[in-house]
Amino acid sequence: MTSSKTKHIMQEIVVAKRILVIREQKVMIDSDLAEIYSVTTKRFNEQVRRNINRFPADFMFQLTVEEKAEVVANCDHLATLKYSPHLPYVFNMGQ
Questions:
Q1: 48-94 pLDDT, tens per residue?
Q2: How far is CA 54 from CA 47, 50, 58, 68, in A?
């Protein structure tokens, strides 16, 4: 396997591990998507809001307090989210 192909496969695995099922939908949390795009979560969400008319109505939703607590409890990489005063957005990855 070439190193380029290996790198691509590894990136796919990383992304696949970040897909969550919330409200019976496959989603990714805003901070994970921001990391993939190498921007801050704040900047990522600003750009989504700025271009919201380009996306379908069910493209994203904000987590409830209970959903946030469950995500923090079940996803080690999101532990710092516990201390955030904001409820994160999640983005639909399609079915």
A1: 999 989 988 888 999 999 999 999 999 988 998 999 999 999 999 87
A2: 11, 9, 12, 26
Distances from the Cα of 50 to the Cα of 6, 13, 46, 60, angstroms: 35, 30, 6, 14
CA distance 57 to 54: 9
pLDDT score of 2 more than 70: no
Nearest Cα to 86, choosing from 24, 40, 50?
A: 40
Provide the whole-model pTM. 0.81
Helix (H, G, I), strand (E, B) or coil at 21: strand
Alpha helices in the chain (DSSP H): 3-17, 30-36, 41-50, 65-74
Which residues does residue 28 pair with via DSSP β-bridges, in sequence order? 91
